[in-house]
């Protein structure tokens, strides 16, 4: 009984020490995350091995694990840039991105956990200023927004992919022009639309007039051909045919043979 406390104390102390070591060594990496291992006595950041994946890990208590989100993320940015003629344009854009998992150690070693603020956002701002500066406010407002979005994406991607960042998309959500410039552009676009509508009506009217003229000319040509072909003999034959048809009609009539001009019959009747 006297020896039990002497044995129990070291055991209890060892158990407590193990619990402390486990608590210091246990790392749980959540869904959509990865860990970069830092070895205090083993060369610092591990860059030649895959990062720690999701789940439970035991790490030496003197080492550290830096956790990164490796799924797609979004970062919004509002910028003030200048157009090609020096007018100030407000640009609201979003970037979809994620760190390159296989290069996570190098990203941590060279850029750190604030890589978004150190690399991604400065690149987006610089490229946006360059791209928007190629266009006039009218182009930015009307027809070139998709082109601007694509150019910002492609040029930013070339920069950040060398910095261990995968850029998936750039979305230009809004382009805000100075109110006076916006109103002037809207007036010009309205006038252009009205001009196009007037030209359309004019062309339509010209086509309709041409159609009527062609139809009238066709009828006139047909009448000329018909008149040229109608001789006295043909007219007399047609008159005889008409007289025969009328004589066969049930309506009451009186036919006087040879009393008309050129000997054509005259038909008298009440119907």
Automatic annotation (TrEMBL):
Pfam families from the UniProt entry: Band_7
Domain Band stretches: 24-189
PANTHER family named among the record's database cross-references: PROHIBITIN, PROHIBITIN 1
Superkingdom of source: Bacteria
UniProt membrane topology term: Single-pass membrane protein
One cellular-component annotation, GO: membrane
Listed name of the protein: Prohibitin family protein
Keyword terms: Membrane, Transmembrane, Transmembrane helix
Annotated compartments: Membrane
Spans traversing the lipid bilayer: 7-27
Family matches, as InterPro entries: Band_7, Band_7/SPFH_dom_sf, Prohibitin
């Amino acid at each position: 009984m006297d020896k039990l406390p002497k044995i129990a104390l070291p055991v209890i102390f060892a158990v407590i020490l193990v619990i402390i070591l486990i608590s210091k060594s246990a790392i749980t990496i959540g869904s959509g995350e990865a860990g970069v291992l830092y070895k205090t006595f083993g060369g610092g950041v591990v860059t030649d091995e895959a990062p720690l994946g999701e789940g439970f890990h035991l790490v030496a208590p003197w080492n550290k694990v830096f956790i990164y989100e490796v799924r797609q993320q979004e970062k919004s940015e509002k910028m003030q840039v200048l157009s090609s003629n020096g007018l100030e344009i407000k640009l609201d854009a979003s970037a979809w991105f994620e760190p390159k998992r296989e290069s996570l150690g190098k990203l941590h070693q060279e850029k750190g956990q604030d890589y978004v603020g150190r690399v991604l956002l400065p690149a987006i701002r610089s490229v946006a200023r360059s791209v928007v500066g190629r266009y006039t406010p009218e182009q930015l407002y009307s027809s070139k927004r998709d082109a601007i979005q694509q150019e910002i994406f492609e040029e930013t991607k070339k920069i950040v992919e060398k910095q261990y960042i995968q850029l998936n998309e750039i979305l230009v959500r809004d382009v805000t022009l100075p109110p006076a410039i916006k109103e002037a552009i809207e007036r010009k676009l309205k006038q252009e639309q009205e001009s196009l509508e007037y030209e359309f009506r004019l062309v339509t009217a010209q086509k309709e007039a041409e159609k009527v003229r062609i139809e009238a000319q066709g009828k006139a040509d047909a009448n000329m051909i018909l008149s040229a072909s109608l001789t006295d003999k043909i007219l007399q034959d047609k008159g005889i045919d008409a007289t025969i048809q009328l004589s066969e009609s049930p309506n009451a009539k009186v036919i006087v043979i040879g009393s008309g001009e050129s000997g054509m019959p005259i038909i008298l009747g009440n119907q």
